[in-house]
Amino acid sequence: SQTIHQWPATLVQPVGSPLSLECTVEGTSNPNLYWYRQAAGRGLQLLFYSVGIGQISSEVPQNLSASRPQDRQFILSSKKLLLSDSGFYLCAWSRDSRAFFGQGTRLTVV
Amino acid sequence: KNEVEQSPQNLTAQEGEFITINCSYSVGISALHWLQQHPGGGIVSLFMLSSGKKKHGRLIATINIQEKHSSLHITASHPRDSAVYICAVRYGGSQGNLIFGKGTKLSVKP
To answer: Which residues of B are less than 8 Å from A33 in CB distance?
Structure first.
C-alpha cells in the first residue's frame, strides 16, 4: 500500500542546533517529493520539491536545505536553527494525480 | 500565478448545522485534495477529486472543473469536526506541484 512516514512528530531544539527531518515513502517509485512549512497562523508554503534522486528545487531562500539520497527518502536539514524556523513541517509525495501527506512535524526552536 | 483561495477563513457553527467550505483555483488542475488538520498539527487526507462528487460518512466533496471550484460539505456537524480544513491542488505536468490554500478554521459548538 502507498504510505508516507515522517518523523519525529514533535521536536524542540535550541537556537543554533542542527536539524534533520526525514520522510520516507512506500508503495511507489519515482514520486515527486515535497517539503512544506506552516508558520503560525499561515498556510502551507512550499520549501523544496524533488522530481528525482539528487534533484532538489528550492522555492524560498532560507536557513534550510533538502536532500534526496534515495528514490523514496527526502531529508530536510539545517546546520544552525533560528527562532524563525519554528513551525509545522509537512512532507508529501505525488505521482500522476495521486498525493499522500505525512503527519507533519511540529518544530519549536527555543 | 497559480493560486488557491479558500473561504471562509474562519467558521463557527452550532452542532448539527450543515457546513460548506469553498475552494477556488486559478488554472487547470489534475487533482484537488481536501485535508483535515487537527490542533496537534497532524494532517489527514479526506478526499482526492478530479471530477464530480465523493462522499464519506458525513463529508461530501464536489468539484466543478469548468468553474475551477470545489466545496467541502459537512452534514450534521459535531464538535469533533472542529479542525482546519485545507484545500490543495495538483497542477498538471510531471513536475506539477501541490499548492495549498491557507485553510478554513472550523469550530463547532455543542
So the answer is: none
pLDDT, one tens digit per residue, over B26-54 is 888 878 999 998 876 678 889 989 899 99
What amino acid occupies position B9? Q
Residue B57 is placed in which grid cell? 460518512
Per-residue pLDDT reduced to its tens digit, A61-76: 678 999 999 999 999 9
Cα–Cα distance, B67 to B70 (Å, whole number)? 9
A31 reaches B (C-beta below 8 A)? no
Tell me, yes or no, if A58 comes closer than 8 A to chain B by beta carbon. no
* Interchain contact, A88 vs B95, CB within 8 Å: no
* Number of Cβ within a 10 Å radius of residue B40: 11
- Residue in B closest to A104 by C-alpha: B42
Give the position of cell 524542540. Answer: A12
Interchain CB distance below 8 Å, B100 and A106: no
Distance of alpha carbon B89 from alpha carbon B34, whole angstroms: 9
CA distance B87 to B73: 13
Residues A33 and A23 sit within 8 Å (Cβ to Cβ):
yes
